[in-house]
Backbone:
């Protein structure tokens, strides 16, 4: 079961706040709606980037095993 929504406070540049104000007024939605939508839309991408960077660091340091395409094809029985 999902927990109740959380409330957080953020500081944003004045120019972004003005853009949100304009968007909210023109569309009849709240600034909170658009802030929430932006977070929900981009959080997956931010997580993917963060985790990919961590894996890349491990690959570069030799901590993460890597395989060539030929090795993967062989393991999966996909050789010609």
Residues:
């Amino acid at each position: 079961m999902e927990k109740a929504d959380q409330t957080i406070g953020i500081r944003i540049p004045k120019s972004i706040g003005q853009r949100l104000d304009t968007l909210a007024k023109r569309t009849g939605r709240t600034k909170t709606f658009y802030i929430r939508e932006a977070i929900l839309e981009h959080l997956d991408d931010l997580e993917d980037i963060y985790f990919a960077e961590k894996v890349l660091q491990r690959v570069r340091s030799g901590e993460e095993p890597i395989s060539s395409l030929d090795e993967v094809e062989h393991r999966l029985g996909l050789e010609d």
About this structure: The mean pLDDT is 93. The radius of gyration is 22 Å. Residues 31-61 form the longest helix (31 residues). Residues 43 and 52 are 14 Å apart (CA to CA).
